[in-house]
Specification:
The chain has helices spanning about 5-10, 25-35, 50-60, 75-80, 90, 105-120, 130-145, 155-170, 195-200, 215-220, 225-235, 255-260, 305-315, 340-350, 390-395, 400-405, 430-445, and strands at about 15-20, 40-45, 85, 100, 125, 150, 175-180, 275-280, 295-300, 325-330, 360-365, 385-390, 410, 425. It is of the alpha/beta class. The protein folds into 3 domains: about 5-155 and about 335-350, NAD(P)-binding Rossmann-like Domain (Rossmann fold), CATH 3.40.50.720; about 160-185 and about 225-330, no CATH class; about 360-440, Antifreeze-like/N-acetylneuraminic acid synthase C-terminal domain (Type Iii Antifreeze Protein Isoform Hplc 12). Strands 3-2-1-4-5-6 form a 6-stranded parallel sheet, sandwiched between helices. The protein has a 4-stranded mixed sheet with strand order 8-7-9-10. Strands 11-12 form a two-stranded antiparallel sheet. Strand 1 (about 15-20), helix 2 (about 25-35) and strand 2 form a beta-alpha-beta unit.
Length: about 450
């Protein structure tokens, strides 16, 4: 509990943590709103392909124009100001930087930027969960061998869920399930950027669809983002996905322990030690009271009669049997909380969540009947959505990872609801991301899938 003290000491010594931000979208803007208010932090450079958008976002975050007026990175480092650049590689290559934040959301770019940061000797905070689920274990190992830290991003749900799991295990509890809440109905899997606006209008206070990235928002509703985030959690903690992926049961925050437990004990899970995402809507489309749409949770199992007694006495949201209990966080503040990761990697050399294994994968599933010759448009698009799957199954089936699907052309018809396999697509000329993915699969053998719970 001393990160703020350490940052204040860096400020007093005039040795701030020097940060480069790659990508200046919503998540980055939220962090930048807090970074300028945090002693001991200097955002020396921001890279984005759209500088005019970056300036608009910085202004919205409360940055005065003179703050982002540095002409070069050297100028920024000498003056305490910030340089804006379209050239991410030029900013990353500077030896004077401490931490690189990768926040582009593009898996191929994320892998490249991460490796550049590692080569330059910088810690990397991977906001880009899409890149993490493609090759995160490999990248984290490469970072460790170079003496730098690869970290998930605090404030984003995967890192917060990893903290829940670490808390539980550090207290001697067995983790039954961990996850988050979201808004979900089964027919959302078929949503596209053309149809998602009708759903968004039901709960978002936004009037203009052109003011947001509809494909990005669609990935949260069609199930892709949930699969991606729960895969990041599994690969950072060793949890194993359910065989058929996430079930999205409806649940309030007070029902977590009754619902997110194995089916053999009256819950819905096909195994213990897994991930799940609970829906804020009933299957009839009605809002669940006391839902957890923006929150995170962990369900633990009491290991003794005395622990079960304590779960009841201290209102640990026990299930009806008293065997399971739940801890939840009602919301997450995304980029506003990212400073915890920056300080942790720079001052403690410790990640806020880090991939260590390859237990989970995200595979591309056809949203509709797909025909030979169609060009896939990736996450949140018109063609496929992402489903979480144990990596042992995805590797043996030679599936197409969701993060590599954009730009692939079909060479065979694929029926709606079917997962895409390598023989269904023209994978094209291997690029850095494709090769990194193959290297990760070779280096991290998927763990054997434990037996499912019998219903």
């Amino acid at each position: 509990m001393n990160l703020s003290r350490m940052l204040n000491q860096r400020a007093a010594n005039n040795k701030p943590v020097r940060v480069v931000m790659i990508g200046c979208g919503k998540f980055a803007t939220m962090y930048l709103a807090q970074a300028r208010r945090t002693p001991g932090i200097h955002v020396a450079g921001i890279a984005d392909l759209d500088i005019s958008r970056a300036k608009i976002n910085l202004t919205a975050a409360g940055w005065p124009p003179e703050q982002f007026s540095a002409a070069t990175l050297d100028d920024a480092l000498g003056s305490g100001r910030t340089v804006l650049s379209e050239n991410a590689s030029a900013l990353i290559s500077s030896g004077a930087i401490d931490v690189v934040i990768e926040a582009t959301g593009m898996p191929r770019a994320g892998i490249s930027h991460c490796r550049q940061a590692i080569a330059a000797g910088h810690h990397i905070v991977m906001v880009n969960v899409e890149a993490d689920v493609l090759a995160g274990p490999l990248l984290a190992r490469e970072a460790a061998r170079a003496g730098v830290v690869y970290s998930l991003a605090w404030g984003d749900q995967p890192a917060l869920i990893c903290e829940h799991i670490d808390w539980a295990r550090s207290c001697g509890f067995e983790v039954t399930a961990a996850g988050k809440g979201t808004r979900y109905l089964p027919d959302y899997h078929s949503l596209t950027p053309d149809t998602v606006w009708a759903v968004l209008q039901q709960y978002l206070d936004i009037d203009d669809p052109e003011s947001i990235n509809l494909q990005m928002f669609n990935s949260f509703l069609d199930g892709s983002k949930s699969a991606i985030e729960m895969t990041a959690v599994c690969n950072a903690t060793g949890l194993i996905p359910q065989d058929a992926g996430l079930q999205f049961p409806s649940a309030s925050r007070f029902e977590l322990a009754d619902i997110c437990k194995p089916s053999s004990d009256g819950g819905v899970l096909t195994r213990s030690g897994t991930t799940e995402v609970v829906s804020s809507l009933t299957r009839a489309g009605e809002t669940v009271a006391h839902h957890l749409a923006m929150g995170t949770f962990v369900v633990i199992q009491a290991g003794s009669d005395y622990a079960r007694q304590c779960l009841r006495e201290y209102h640990m949201l026990p299930d009806k049997t008293g065997q399971y209990g739940a801890l939840y966080r009602p919301t997450h503040m995304i980029g506003l909380e990212l400073g915890v990761s920056i300080a942790s990697v720079a001052l403690r050399g410790e990640p806020t969540g880090q991939p260590m294994c390859f237990s989970s994968d995200v595979v591309a599933i056809a949203k509709r009947d797909l025909k030979i010759g169609e060009l896939l448009d990736g996450e949140g698009g018109h063609c496929v959505f992402g489903r979480q799957m144990p990596s042992e199954k995805s590797v043996s089936a030679r599936t197409v990872p969701l993060g590599l699907s954009a730009g692939m052309r079909l060479v065979r018809n694929v029926a709606s609801g079917q997962m895409l396999c390598r023989d269904d697509v023209d994978v094209g000329t291997p690029d850095e991301a494709t090769l990194a993915r193959d290297q990760m699969v070779s280096a991290f053998a998927p763990p054997k899938i434990p037996p499912a719970t019998q219903k």
